[in-house]
Amino acid sequence: MSLRQQLAQLLVLRASGYALDQQRRYPRWELSNDELQRGLAEGVGGVILLGGSAADLALRCRQLQDWAQGPLLLCADVEEGVGQRFDGASWLPPPLSLARLWQRDPTQAEELATAYGRCTALEARSLGLNWVLGPVCDVNNNPANPVINVRAWGETAEAASALSSCFLVGLQREGVLGCAKHFPGHGDTASDSHLELPLIPHELKRLQQVELPPFEAAIAAGAASVMTAHLLMPAIDAERPATLSKAVLTDLLRQKLGFNGLVVTDALVMEAIADRYGPGEAAALAFDAGADLILMPADAAAALDALEEGFSSGRWPLERLEQSLQRREQALAQSQTSPVEPPQALKQLATLQGQHRELQQQLLALVLM
Q1: Assessment of whether the complete model's pTM goes beyond 0.90
Q2: 194 is catalytic
């Protein structure tokens, strides 16, 4: 396998959950089928999916795996259950709905969070996904936050730690990879990193008390992956966003917190990064900082060119690439998802939904209390 093909395994590209190009809702970011087939033939190792029904997703996952050169990481942002993004699967109330219950009855809240993770995993796995981009480990402690809000599991470090780690355990026990995000904490911002670069002004002591504990709990619970945040934390690195900061991803996450799993960037097409860095530069800086996987580069070819140049020029030793590829292989081995024929997938989903209806009702009752 060539160097470029090996590097392609570290890219996670975005695709529509729909099978046909004309069904794409966001063609600016969702690759056409021709582009996907070319990328997968060149070795691209992951796809993030959005849009369509559960039936569309089952068909799409099977199609993508058939086009690929090897096992794929197939993921989606299904923080509220698979039905949040794919019609027909279970859509659960937002995670923050459990935070108030946790104050009164932590045992029941943690049991429900575990069941939430299990429900998400079983339905994701039945349709072909092997990686869920959750839980959100950010502490929702800023009422002005426009992007985290009810996606968080708590408004205190204690609640967020307990509930997000329970979700993670429930998810990964069923053979689907989890992802603790957005490291080192996106809860206390008043701006959206999809649109601009947020600033977290707090000192390191405060970060250790509030922002970091949920990630420490997730790591202790065996999180398969951690997603980076596109924000500036001057107490750790005054120059570069966390996604591109070696001080954040290597010194803090890898060395101080002892995380040995996959580190994935948040989407590099987001304006917090794309407004300041070119697609190749962003991919190279993220990899240099310690990221293993590059999610949604604005230009996949430019990202690969920059990574290839980094190895050809001696900027990084080949051992660095081998480490990331090994982490990817270990994650794939940890997942228990295998390609499923769509009719069988939908039959399995229907059975699961019957089992998950009671959980939906319990969570809805909490929201309405």
Answers
A1: yes
A2: yes
